[in-house]
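Action item from last meeting closed. Structure (408 res):
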């Protein structure tokens, strides 16, 4: 396929270009930073005597605030000639917010710091996705987004491993560990600044936010409904770490249970990274709605495993493996399906809306799952999750892809 590339030259398009690589590297470093913080957050909060409900509130509020930033950023950046500076600022704010965890002495301090970090994340997310989709052809959306998800998850593999090693080297001094997250955090902003190539684009003139939202196609709005249903049950992964710790400490010392939980989370992220590229390649060859429904279904299988089987180490390995696989499919397919359903000029608005719907779902899911777990037990909490995952899987099956499947 011949087309004009971002540098103005015509020729056979190479999807793994400087922009795709730069965005991938930025995702790797940024996720490395915040996964260090995420991995130790439950144990850091435990030193303050905080229960599952507080963890759910922190994750939920931060995700909810982030969702509004995503929506505003998506709408605003469609009106700009250049989007890249907004992404750079977003990465810097996320790095500073995550590092500030080390200043916390109470749970509400973590709530503020996490919210600031996730506001930066919200600003950058639709911009990053719009920059990525603009750098490749529709026939290679799956591979480009799969590569970005894979790089992001490599950061999520290195992050927990770094946290485990550094926390012991630092004699469990959490503030020093959080301060070190600044290094990969700032490197992520530099990767966007120096590797991502963006040509000046023609802005979209939305007369209002609502006019911009109405310009999105009907199939996309139906797609958002399926995403919202799924997102309402898709709790933060830190709650899965808490599940592992609370289950394993019944049969071993708490410190050992925490070490195993960290290892399980690392294993989950290895599965996530591996299946992101697999999902991306499959997305360029098969119907995206079917693959996305499969991912949602695997999420339901994970929740049902928690409900139906005793939570020993073997069961937890299966739970964390399914978690990594379903998230890899979900995130890669949601992004590539979104890019397929909406014209490129409106990708900022589309990705911002998609991210907002996911964020609102995350806000409610983390808080509801945390509250149900605390009040009624983990089986009720995971039953709630399974029901919504199945509902989302069934709805997304009814949405036909916009373009023909490409054999590439």
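Sequence:
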């Amino acid at each position: 396929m011949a087309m004009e590339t971002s540098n103005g030259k015509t020729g056979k398009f190479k999807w793994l270009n400087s922009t795709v690589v730069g965005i991938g590297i930025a995702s790797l470093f940024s996720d490395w930073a915040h996964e260090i913080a995420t991995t130790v957050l439950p144990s850091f909060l435990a030193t303050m005597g905080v229960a599952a409900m507080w963890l759910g509130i922190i994750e939920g509020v931060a995700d909810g605030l982030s969702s509004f930033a995503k929506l505003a950023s998506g709408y605003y950046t469609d009106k700009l000639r250049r989007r890249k500076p907004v992404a750079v600022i977003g990465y810097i704010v996320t790095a500073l917010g995550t590092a500030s965890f080390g200043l916390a002495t109470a749970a509400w301090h973590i709530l503020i710091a996490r919210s600031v970090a996730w506001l930066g994340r919200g600003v950058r997310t639709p911009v990053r996705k719009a920059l990525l989709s603009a750098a490749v052809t529709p026939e290679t959306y799956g591979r480009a987004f799969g590569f970005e998800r894979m790089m992001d998850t490599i950061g999520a593999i290195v992050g927990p491993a770094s946290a485990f090693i550094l926390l012991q080297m630092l004699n469990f001094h959490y503030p020093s560990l959080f301060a070190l997250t600044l290094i990969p955090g700032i490197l992520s902003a530099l990767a966007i600044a120096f590797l991502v190539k963006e040509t000046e684009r023609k802005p979209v003139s939305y007369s209002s936010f609502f006019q911009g939202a109405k310009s999105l196609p009907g199939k996309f709005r139906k797609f958002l409904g399926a995403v919202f249903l799924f997102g309402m049950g898709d709790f933060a992964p830190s709650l899965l770490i808490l599940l592992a710790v609370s289950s394993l400490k019944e049969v071993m010392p708490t410190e050992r249970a925490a070490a195993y939980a960290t290892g399980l989370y690392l294993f989950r992220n290895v599965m996530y990274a591996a299946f992101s590229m697999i999902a991306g390649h499959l997305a360029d060859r098969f119907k995206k709605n079917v693959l996305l429904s499969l991912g949602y279904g695997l999420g339901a299988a994970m929740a049902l495993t928690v409900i139906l089987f005793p939570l020993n180490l073997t069961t937890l390995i299966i739970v964390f493996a399914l978690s990594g696989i379903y998230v890899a499919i979900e995130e890669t397919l949601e992004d590539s399906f979104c890019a397929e359903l909406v014209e490129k000029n409106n990708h900022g608005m589309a990705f911002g809306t998609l991210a907002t719907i996911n964020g609102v779902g995350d806000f409610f899911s983390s808080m509801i799952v945390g509250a149900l777990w605390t009040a009624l037990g983990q089986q009720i909490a995971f039953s709630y999750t399974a029901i919504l995952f199945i509902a989302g899987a069934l709805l997304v099956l009814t949405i036909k892809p916009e373009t023909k499947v490409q054999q590439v």
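Note appended to the action item: The radius of gyration is 20 Å.
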